[in-house]
Amino acid sequence: MKILVTGGTGYIGSHTVVELQQQGFEVIIVDNLSNSQAGVVDAIAQITGIRPVFEKFDLVDREMTADFFRRHNDLNGIIHFAAYKAVGESVDKPLMYYRNNLVSLMNILEGMIANNIPNLVFSSSCTVYGQPDELPVAETAPIKKAESPYGNTKQISEEVLQDTIKSSKINVIALRYFNPIGAHDSALIGELPLGVPNNLVPFITQTAIGIRQQLSVFGEDYNTPDGTAIRDYIHVVDLAKAHVIAVSRMINKKMKQPFEVFNLGTGNGNSVLEVINSFERVSATKLNYKIVGRRAGDVEKVWANADFSNKELGWKAEKSLDEMTASAWKWEKAYRSRS
Ligand code: UD1
């Protein structure tokens, strides 16, 4: 079975390629390396013993994408990760986000239709729920107005997909990620943000290793037990495994509708301070952090109702918060000692 993984050198993409190859799938990666490095392909080959095919081009380019699909019209499925994902940047550069995230999706869908490629797994986000009225939040919860252009690209993409399946033979599984963290146990792949990290865990590990001076904890006046915001952190390898299950479900014609949505979370919420405590415990280091004001656009608390995913996909996130922070730390140390 041959699978295209767009964004396959990125954080979640690379972990998914490893799981796919380990399950016997043949993988082709397309990535423009705008936020990742070609060396990730070597790392994947080192972990799995198999070098995935890698083509470097931009899926926003309609002709190149059409040409790619003409050359690879025998794909059994596509997992589409390639997208921009920085919330703050999307506020400053909305058109860059809309063009990149939406045009690439449309080019892929056109390529699928033209070549009768049936199956697409789409990277969506819990950001589509905004601040949910009910917690844990289930897939049936209402979609709230997006807080950022980034979030809006995920909402619009889901709509584009729902409209497209009505007039084509394409099947779609949209996976709504909560907060993926951690790294592969080999410490050969992990999260590698360019520049100053926006996300909590890479900021923690970079502070601990001395690249950043101090972590700012955004807000301690939330309506939560310790006052800091709560998220559903999920190990990236658990998340990657769900993609293999989703693509298999499509190929094996186990879908119950042509458009399905699944939450990928653990079902547990942890506060920012709990993540910091976990990190300090597993790394036996003291983290330099200070409490500052809230970050604009942050929701107070969100965690998944993962019952539907657990039941329908036969999948469950297995790794604990300590395993997540420990693997992120192992990766940070290994990466810095190599570079
Ligand atoms: C955000 C997006 C999510 C997106 C993800 C990818 C929203 C609501 N969420 O997740 O859709 O997929 O980024 O990048 O838009 N924090 C600190 N200090 C820091 C960094 C973060 O205290 O230096 C706190 C945040 O305030 C938040 C938690 O840590 O409470 C997690 O933040 P982060 O890792 O940035 O993820 P989200 O904002 O939840």
Instruction: Give me the count of strands.
Output: 13
* Major beta sheet summary: 7 strands, parallel
Mean of residue pLDDT values: 97
Reading the helices and strands in chain order gives EHEHEHEHHEHEEHEEEHEEHEHH
What are the low-pLDDT stretches, counting only 5+ consecutive residues below 50? Answer: none
Give the overall shape, derived from the CA principal axes: globular
- What's the architecture of the domain at 2-181 and 234-264 in CATH terms? 3-Layer(aba) Sandwich
Query: What is the CATH domain class of the domain at 2-181 and 234-264?
Result: Alpha Beta
Helix content: 40-55%
CATH superfamily of the domain at 2-181 and 234-264: NAD(P)-binding Rossmann-like Domain
Largest sheet, order of strands side by side? Answer: 3-2-1-4-5-6-11
How far is the first residue's CA from the last residue's CA? Answer: 36 Å
Strand content: 15-25%
How do the strands and helices of this protein lay out in sequence?
Layout: E1 2-6, H1 11-22, E2 26-30, H2 39-48, E3 53-55, H3 62-71, E4 77-80, H4 87-92, H5 94-114, E5 119-125, H6 149-166, E6 171-177, E7 179-181, H7 200-208, E8 215-218, E9 230-231, E10 233-235, H8 236-251, E11 259-264, E12 270-271, H9 272-283, E13 289-292, H10 307-313, H11 321-338
Helix pairs in contact: 1-2, 1-8, 3-5, 5-6, 7-9, 7-11, 9-11
This protein binds uridine-diphosphate-N-acetylglucosamine.
